Amino acid sequence: MENKINRINGIIENMTVDAEELKVHIGKTVRIHGSIYKIRKMSDFAFVLLRTKRTVVQCVYAKEFSNFELDELAEESCVIVTAEVIQEERAKVGYELRMIEVDILSEPSEVSPIVMNQKKVDTSLENLLDYRPVTLRNEKERAIFKLQEGIAAGFRQFLMSNGFTEIHSPKIVAEGAEGGANIFKLDYFGKEAYLAQSPQFYKQMMVGVFERVFEISSVFRAEKHDTSRHLNEYTGVDFEMGYISDFTEIMEMETAMLKNTMKYLEEKYALELALLKLKLPEIEEIPSVKFIDAKQMVSEAYNREIRDYEDFEPEEEKLLCELIQKKTGSEFVFVTHYPSKKRPFYAMENPENIEETLSFDLLFRGLEITTGGQRIHNYEMQLEKMRKRGMKQEHFEGYLMAHKYGLPPHGGLGLGLERFTAKLLGFENVRNATLFPRDINRLVP
Amino acid sequence: MENKINRINGIIENMTVDAEELKVHIGKTVRIHGSIYKIRKMSDFAFVLLRTKRTVVQCVYAKEFSNFELDELAEESCVIVTAEVIQEERAKVGYELRMIEVDILSEPSEVSPIVMNQKKVDTSLENLLDYRPVTLRNEKERAIFKLQEGIAAGFRQFLMSNGFTEIHSPKIVAEGAEGGANIFKLDYFGKEAYLAQSPQFYKQMMVGVFERVFEISSVFRAEKHDTSRHLNEYTGVDFEMGYISDFTEIMEMETAMLKNTMKYLEEKYALELALLKLKLPEIEEIPSVKFIDAKQMVSEAYNREIRDYEDFEPEEEKLLCELIQKKTGSEFVFVTHYPSKKRPFYAMENPENIEETLSFDLLFRGLEITTGGQRIHNYEMQLEKMRKRGMKQEHFEGYLMAHKYGLPPHGGLGLGLERFTAKLLGFENVRNATLFPRDINRLVP
User: Fold this and answer.
1) How many CA atoms lie within 13 A of A443 on its CB side?
2) What is the CATH number of domain A139-433?
3) Which of A61, A207, A386, B376 could form a disulfide with B382 if both were Cys (CB 3.0 to 4.6 A apart)?
């Protein structure tokens, strides 16, 4: 019986070398695997570009040293190349990879109708998204999402080193946190349930447990607007912190998080930054303006009438960013003290003027990327505000339990990972920075 | 106009000290904040336990040095304590924290009906979960989820350092990946959509892009069974790797990931391990048994008739783990080569016996915590298997695009974070290791 038991010892044997390590193998013969990204035929030799985990590696094919026919290779075949790494000063990387043999592991069944192995995928956004599994194979397209990994990792590293605990809250919920009509319903074993618009209730409850918490996970908005900045599902970066003495501490924390993340990207994602020719914004300090002052500044500077005293028009957000950049050099701006009417029921009002909240948005390059603020922590105050808004206390029992049995003064924020990535990369449309976007017209792939 | 612009510089001013740093302040007066966890009155003084971010700190109240009345303090009030840190050899931590003053930041409105500041919360599972926002404040309850943070962080650290890219795939999908009836439906702007049972399709598509990918995120199963091991929403740890030459490489990778994570916990979560009195399992190597052999081994050892040749009964999983532990000392066991009939349409069959798949489960202390295996990467082979199963190719266009235009041999796995945490902590019920569980009877809090 014992001889039927095998052993798995967790030893990972690398039969091939990593693209990033080729340099140390100069003068040797190596095996390297990847997908054939592009074959570029020259007069008496060919360049064969191999797409590896993170970089595209250039190999050289020539009859004099390659023991196979070039036409055995097809783009998007997955192969193991046996190659000699030859010192070559003329090559950018300092060596040349001479293909000796090739093992073909798999071959595509068809050639993609979308050309994706040029510098950029030259097609409509529609096509780019319809053919995502293929278009993401483009070197620059995939670099966007490698960088997005880095943004989230930078945030996480900062938050964990500042005493925030990462949590996993449920996405199927009995009540939406943000109110309004943009909530997805689902049938939950005969009960009506919803998809979480944010982890708001849960992170507030968890402030009573861990003091500082964060979550990076999917949030859902049944947004019917088909705009360049809305998604129906996106990745929310949410944090919440207790024991604040002022809501500006949340803004300080976010500013520090952004600074830290820019550094993290420069250190760990230099490959992608170089490929995308991306210069990260320098963040020294972020200007902050009160909502009503911001409205007036834009009105004066651009000679626009203020039509809505309770919210920004998208155009105003753009103009404000333009104005602030001119005046301060910053591409970020905090707008604070939004009107109470436009903020959710858990927002803390300014005790000096209850018409406005101790809240903020962060705008970046013309777009709101964060909403945050101080929350109500007192049970009676929260009940009172809910009563005023005609909300039913009994629908929020679990949430209010946190307040009832004691919560510290606290606040937090939510940042849209895709929006931030898009703006960082200079995209007009947030879909360009969304792996598989969901919108009113798109449910696949 | 300029004087309306404030500056946020990202400097985080700590007005209070961290509990973990108290030792360096011996001989000084410090301010420390937290929630009053417990007041323990003695004859002429009192111990006041302060719950901070990660630890519970003991303060001493006595009339001789405390400039306030003890009855100003209530359990679950949030406070800033001004205290003198006095060297005290008799104290476990080497110092005593003498309360001088206290600022009360917030007070609870009511006393919790559930006592949560004892060593353990002594109540039913039902109550424990109904009062989650309060019961999680118990020192040991919250340590479970701090440790769960560490498990996920350990996995992530391992995967990122092994060239896996973290992705964010959509949870609202047009087709379920795992088949069967346990899928939640929702109305997506008039179209029928589903909640993802796993990121399976997306991670396979992304193997064509990044070669190695992972995701740690919510997965949804409309499971009607109300058992100790099923949840309707849980945190899936999913990875997928390309260029495998054998499916055992996936098992090696998981074994290495588990080893690494145990080390990570020992280094970074020693506080919680000590509090929970938890000794982590030692993983040297993990035994692996073929499914059919495992069935026979259990049948022989326990004199049980084999009733189902296609799947395990839960009791058999328990007995197998017991048997393997007796024979090898390991609390983990891989079971391989599950029957094709019981595995999804994307599972790669054994070319030597198409009745079985190149797949595995990982059992730990009697429970399946991982399902994985090699996937079909060839387009025609995948179409053929779908045809045999009566599946409609046109429903899976986006997914099949990856195969059609070229995919390397690959495989991966999914691990349930809550199940793993539960078994690691020795819980019978997975809900004990789930922050806010969702099951057929539970949608709140």
Assistant:
1) 20
2) 3.30.930.10
3) B376
